[in-house]
Amino acid sequence: MNDIDAWVWWLVGAAALGIPLVVTAMPEFGMLAVGAVAAAVVAALGFDGVIQVLAFVVVSVALIAVVRPIAARHGRQRPQLATGIDALKGRQAVVLERVDGSGGRIKLAGEVWSARSLDTGRAYDVGQEVDVVDIEGATAIVI
């Protein structure tokens, strides 16, 4: 056990920290693994154990302090590309069958949708363009 250099032990520690990173998907383990690799480099350069541990702690803490808040901020952002019904809101459609407060049909994004007007007293005739303001189930709400 004394025949193995310290840098090898640091690399073993880095690999061991990579296992919970994969299993738990917690990026902090990856940052600790990078700190262990930094300590392995310091050990390979011939520095003593105190400097190796200091390199591990400094690199690990720096990564957690800098990368973690950035990752958390990106995790809270909504995707810029709208998909599903969110992509249909705000689009224009063409009335295929008269649309009023009780129903009708429109052509939206190349598909035929059931629709009803947002204002129950308002009706839209065939051929008119309408704006989709919401989707409720399989019914587009238009104005």
Describe the structure.
This protein has 143 residues and is α+β, with helices and mostly antiparallel strands. It contains four helices and five strands. Strands 1-2-3-5-4 form a five-stranded mixed barrel. Helix 1 (6-24) packs antiparallel against helix 2 and helix 2 packs antiparallel against helix 3. The chain is rod-shaped, with a radius of gyration of 30 Å.
Write a concise synopsis of the structure shown.
The protein has 143 residues and is α+β, with helices and mostly antiparallel strands.
Distance between the termini: 77 Å
Shape: rod-shaped
Structural class label: alpha+beta
Ranges with pLDDT <50 over ≥5 residues? none
Count of runs of 4 or more consecutive helical residues: 4
Q: SSE layout and pairings?
A:
Layout lengths: L5 H19 L2 H18 L4 H28 L8 H4 L3 E9 L2 E6 L2 E7 L11 E8 L2 E4 L1
Parallel strand pairs: 3-5
Antiparallel strand pairs: 1-2, 1-4, 2-3, 4-5
Helix pairs in contact: 1-2, 2-3
Keywords:
48% helix; 5-stranded mixed β-barrel; 143 residues; alpha+beta
